[in-house]
Design brief:
- By secondary structure, the protein is an alpha/beta fold.
- The chain is built from 17 helices and 15 strands.
- The longest helix is centred in the first third of the chain and has 42 residues.
């Protein structure tokens, strides 16, 4: 990979020459500058308050510098850890006993390895699926027969054979949707977006039937690329038809064998898979441990590459805007300081943050008051806040042109369909107020208000809640394996659809329920959910902080 390509990314982005997008680019720059000033003022007031408190403290006794970070999590209770490991061990033992029994006394349902042939599946994965996951598989893959709105219709299912087969009853369960990524609620039907998408379908059809480099780069797709570039303050953008594939297909083209990628421990699977597919060397730093990140960078600069000790041509820091399992917002300012100190490159995944945070929805860059020129590559998706599908990579023109030529995104992947491109494009216009309404700005503010309200309500229940106030991703800890499916089933039975997460997506003892709030929810919806969650939490037994229980604030 050309080194000059990456050096170009550190320069200041130039505004587009097209007058339609030049104004949007300049408005975006003003928004970023305003956000930077607001964050600077907020941090100054906090520093002044801390300094004042420190002086007061020193009058009484010497103060000690705290090393605790904002996002430190409470430790998993020892009793919970022991019970979780005990249950997992018993399940594993009983699973092996049943496998041994089935080997000698096979049943019609048992799948035996044909003599002389290897098993198609891997041993542990197959064992885990049959003896662990299948028991609770009804908690996932639930079909819906409605839009992923604030209220969703979940298809009722039943199993006659302990989840070996799951059949539909033909009935629908109406439920408040706390599982979809429909952060701003634009997956709902809006007159503006619906009309624009229908016009696009009439003119361009459903699919492009080819790769973007061939004849599948439709007019809505081309306009969407320019709109995204101007919105996030970058020169150019390439769009992929799949959110996961955006990282998976683009990263191998960007990182060569002379690149060191330093990845946050909690990065998404698409980032991990993309780095593995590349030729780059990779190291992982513990989440939010910036002193460890600096130590890794220093060692890489001093000692160079393994065995040869040749210097790395580039060191890339790989992070996310909002961590989807933790609900935490990236401390981008601190990352940028480290990046500038050691002259590294920075790749930020804004899949969950673009559209969802920041005063105008411009993501973690705006939320943290950072100049977009300080982030070399910005990645985001349209599957969350925009009610569509696909993702984008934004950066300087030379970098994006290189990705277009060298990655499978534009060479082998199906182009994002015109209708999906138009859906995302129409939402961008609503966020910018170009539809003639202020619905976009209202939805951004409502999402922030809903996130604060719901997170505070969960804390009032005595639950262990991760993440930050403005984050629309709100995890509450369940911990124990047996309680994960019970919580999901009991919530659905009471009319609340949730997503529960366990091993291997988390560690064995950190299972959780991940609530996703939306701008489509009303405070009344969320209050009703909190009352139901209170009842289920007491029944399941996941209230780990009874001393913090207090009345839920009414809307």
């Amino acid at each position: 990979t050309s080194t000059s390509t990456y050096r170009a990314s550190s320069g200041q982005c130039q505004p587009p020459t097209d007058p339609r997008f030049h104004d949007l680019f300049m408005r975006s720059r003003e928004a970023f500058e305003t956000a930077k000033m607001q964050v600077d003022q907020r941090e100054k007031s906090i520093d002044d308050a801390v300094q004042s408190a420190d002086i007061t403290l020193r009058k009484g006794k010497a103060s000690k510098k705290s090393t605790r970070t904002l996002n430190d999590h409470p430790p998993v209770p020892l009793r919970v850890q022991m019970l979780t490991y005990l249950v997992a061990s018993l399940l594993a033992i009983m699973g092996h006993v049943r496998d041994s029994f089935r080997y000698f006394f096979p049943s019609a349902a048992a799948v035996r390895r044909e003599k002389g042939y290897a098993s198609v599946v891997r041993d542990f994965d197959d064992f885990f699926h049959r003896r662990f996951y299948r028991r609770i598989s009804d908690c996932w893959n639930r079909p819906i027969n409605s839009r992923p709105s604030g209220i969703v219709g979940v298809v009722e299912r039943f199993t006659p054979d302990f989840n070996l087969t799951i059949e539909e009853t033909g009935k629908m369960i109406p439920a408040i949707n706390l599982g979809s990524y429909n952060y701003l609620g634009f997956a709902d039907e809006f007159e503006y977006t619906t009309n624009e998408v229908l016009k696009s379908l009439d003119k361009f059809g459903i699919g492009g039937c080819g790769a973007p480099e061939e004849f599948a780069r439709s007019q809505p797709l081309a306009e969407l690329e320019k709109t995204v570039s101007a919105f996030v303050g970058k020169e150019d953008t390439i769009i992929c038809g799949m959110g996961f594939g955006t990282n998976f297909a683009s990263i191998p083209a960007l990182f060569d064998k002379n690149t060191l990628v330093i990845s946050d421990q909690l990065n998404h699977a698409s980032l991990i898979a993309g780095v593995r597919m590349s030729a780059a060397k990779a190291k992982v730093f513990p989440h939010n441990r910036f002193e460890v990140l600096e130590k890794i960078i220093e060692d890489a600069i001093v000692f160079g590459q393994p065995r040869t000790h040749l210097p790395y041509k580039r060191i890339v820091i790989l992070v996310e805007g909002i961590y989807s399992m933790e609900g935490e917002i990236l401390n981008l300012r601190r990352i940028v300081e480290i990046k500038k100190k050691y002259k590294c490159l920075l790749y930020v995944d804004e899949a969950h943050s673009i559209g969802a945070i920041g005063q105008t929805g411009r993501g973690v860059v705006e939320y943290c008051g950072v100049d977009p020129d300080d982030v070399d590559v910005l990645m985001g998706t349209f599957t969350k806040s925009f009610g569509s599908i696909g993702g984008y990579i934004s950066g300087n023109h030379d970098v994006i042109e290189y990705v277009r030529c060298m990655s499978s995104v534009s060479l082998y992947s199906e182009a994002l369909s015109p209708a999906c491109s138009q859906q995302a494009l129409s939402v961008f216009k609503m966020l910018l107020g170009e539809d003639g309404t202020n619905i976009g700005a209202e939805r951004i503010q409502r999402l922030a208000d809903n996130a604060r309200y719901f997170r505070e309500g969960l804390k009032c229940l005595g639950l262990t809640v991760y993440g930050e106030d403005c984050s629309p991703v709100i995890p509450a800890m369940i911990y124990q394996l047996a309680k994960i499916p019970k919580f999901s089933r009991e919530c659905l039975a009471r009319g609340v659809a949730v997503v529960v997460v366990g091993y291997p997506a988390t560690s064995l003892v950190t299972g959780r329920v991940r609530f996703c709030v939306s701008g489509a929810h009303t405070k009344s919806d969320l209050y009703k959910c909190l009352l139901i969650i209170k009842e289920v939490s007491e029944d399941v037994g996941i209230i780990f902080h009874p001393e913090k229980i207090r009345p839920i604030p009414r809307p």
